[in-house]
Amino acid sequence: MDALDPQVNIPFAEVLYKQPTFLQAVYDSLSEHGVIVMQLGDAPGIFDPSDAIGRNENRAIITEHLLRMGFESVHVYEEKHSDFGDPWSYLVAMKDFTARTNWYLNVAEIEVAIKDRIKHTYSGKSALRFFDGATMMTYQTPHKAFETIYCRNKPVPQGCDEISKGFSKSRPNAPVSSFEVKASQVGDQAGRGIFAKVDIPKGAYIGVEQSMNSIKVTPTTYDIISSHVEEYVEAAGFDAVVEFLWGYGFESNLYGEISYVVDSTILTFVNHGCNGTYNAADAGSTGTEMTADEFDAEYFWHDPYNLVVARHLPYSQSSGDVALRGIKAGEEILNNYLDFTSSEKHWKADVLDLRNQCLGKGVGSITDYESGKPRTEAWRKDEGEKQD
Questions:
Q1: Buried/exposed code over 169-207 (b: 16+ C-beta within 10 A; e: otherwise)
Q2: Is the distance from CB of 179 to CB of 265 less than 8 angstroms?
Q3: N vs C: which end of the chain shows fewer Cβ within 10 Å?
Q4: Closest CA to 157 of 299, 15, 271, 52
Q5: H helices then E strands: how many in the chain?
Q6: Residues forming a β-bridge with 174
Q7: How far are the Cα atoms of 224, 282, 354, 377 from residue 231, in angstroms, in the given order?
């Protein structure tokens, strides 16, 4: 949508941006997976005040209206090829949260989409002068100035503290070298476990120096792998990959659809703490497999417009575990596996699985796989029966 710049101070701009009538009509006209792109005037500078005050007030009002109307994923980016003298800012709002999977496609996926959807020229050259996959990648992470002025809002938005934005110098870290692999003590069939070699203070990061080296499987990659395993017996070679993701990874929907992250260090062997005995997890971790009931959508809810999370998305997905209490040398490190499920679709099955393990009525997926009982076989059968 190319309308008046929000900074233009005339009566029509007031009606267009300060009154929600027009934007509500746009929202209502979109399909359930609809997307709107708007230009928001000149891009912010690092020394600008919050959008809520000064000449960019309309930009803040527009964003507030869109969020109130129900857009589930809102992104901002800047572009310097508009020939306006300064970089220009744009906003993309999506009615469906899962649509953000397309926003975070990689370079190759974007290039294929361009080839499929943009009309070919007779010369064979691209019809787009200033856009390709690499350019789109620069849009995915908001400029530092966007985050800075966002955090100048009052009250200060959630996540603008130093700890949420990345590494906090005031918080100690227990490096991966502080841990070792031994036979787990949580059960006879629990397999490997992780134990502290030194005392770890409450609140310390757990291996944060290696957190960004995690194995990340994007939504589109997981969809390709899982669909092949489900549909083609000939693709059984992928079973081990899926079992690896299910057994050692954790689910995330930060990129829209389901993706997986697997710790690439020995910390991947950390086991679940039954009945709330976990001692190292996300600082906000709550609940146990015994008390969990219905899927708590609020716990896994993601702010549709949080520029701190948007700028630090890989960190938000790959780290954050801290010592929930002081941990003594020799203690086994235990996490809360309930945090590893982010979709309502898998919630009940995962809770029941953990509950059975904690009651001694079942074992984990890795133990099943290593004892010759891969879960992919049962999964493939269940999916086939659903289709029939």
A1: eeeebbebebbeeeebebbeebbebbbbeeebeebbbbb
A2: no
A3: C
A4: 52
A5: 15, 14
A6: 206
A7: 11, 36, 28, 12
Burial of 294 (0-12, 13-18, 19+ CB in 10 A): exposed
Using one digit for the tens of pLDDT, what is the confidence trace for 249-304? Answer: 888 888 999 899 999 999 999 999 999 999 998 887 878 888 887 776 666 667 89
Residue 158: DSSP 8-state: T
Structure tokens at 211: 């957190």
Count of CB atoms within 10 A of residue 50's CB?
17
- Crossing angle, helix 107-117 and helix 133-140, to 10 degrees? 120
With tokens 């870290």, the residue in question is 173
Cα of first residue to Cα of last residue in the chain, in angstroms, is 45
Q: Phi and psi at residue 105, in whole multiples of 5°?
A: -65, 155
Tell me the CB-side half-sphere exposure of residue 36, using CA atoms within 13 A: 26
Provide the whole-model pTM: 0.84
The rounded distance, in Å, linking the Cα atoms of 290 and 354 is: 9
| φ, ψ dihedrals at 377, nearest 5° | -65, -45
Give the type of residue at 266.
I
218-263: pLDDT as tens digits = 999 999 988 888 777 777 778 888 889 988 988 888 899 989 999 9
User: Which distant-in-sequence residues (6+ apart) come within 8 Å of 165 by Cβ?
Assistant: 159, 308, 311, 312
